[in-house]
Every structure is written in C-alpha cells, then in structure tokens.
Amino acid sequence: MPRLIDRRTGRHLCTITEEEFVQLMSLFEETVGEGPADEPLAPIDPDLLERLAESGASERVLAVAQQILQGREDFDLGWEPD
C-alpha cells in the first residue's frame, strides 16, 4: 500500500489503500494538472485542500492533510510505494 509522506521533512504521514491512492492521483490531475514525473503529487495549501474535498478525496486522506497543514501555509505531499 502506498505511503504518503511530507516531502520537506521525509516524515511518514499515513499508509493508504490502493483505491485511495488511485483516487488521490486522479484528483490531483483534475485539480492541479499533471506535473513532472519526478514530482509525485504537489504542494498543498488550504485552497487545494478545499478543491480536493469538493472533488471527493477520501475522509482519511483529507484528515491527514488537514492535520499536517494546521499552522502552516503549505506543505509538499509525496508518496512512496510500500
């Protein structure tokens, strides 16, 4: 199962299911477009978090992102295969 990480600190945030990962990747493509292949996911700020929620991101992924974002202007969400 893929692991979400904070790319700035390398800190492991959570492990998500394959279904959640596919959903998250689709939502990122819809909301921010495709990025370079070496850039897994993208910086998250409150506006992007809101757009992801509106697009149907899972509750668990949003909860982790909201928790990490609290008190910060943004953070870089990345992923690693299990």
Give an overview of the whole structure.
A 4-stranded antiparallel β-sheet has the order 2-1-4-3. It has one domain (3-80). The N and C termini lie close together (5 Å). Helices cover 44% and strands 20% of the residues. By secondary structure, the chain is an alpha+beta fold. The protein contains 3 helices and 4 strands. The radius of gyration is 11 Å and the shape is globular. The chain has helices at 18-32, 46-55, 59-69, and strands at 3-6, 12-15, 43-44, 75-80.
Q: Could you state the order of secondary-structure elements as H and E?
A: EEHEHHE
Average of the residue pLDDT scores: 75
Question: Could you tell me the strand content as a percent range?
Answer: 15-25%
| β-strand number | 4
What is the radius of gyration computed over CA atoms, rounded to a whole number of angstroms? 11 Å
Strand order of the largest sheet: 2-1-4-3
DSSP summary: helix tally: 3
Distance between the termini: 5 Å
Number of domains: 1
Structural class: alpha+beta
Poorly predicted residue ranges: none
For the sheet with most strands, the description reads:
4 strands, antiparallel
Describe the global form: globular
> So what's the oligomer here?
single chain
Which range best describes the helical content: under 10%, 10-25%, 25-40%, 40-55%, 55-70% or over 70%? 40-55%
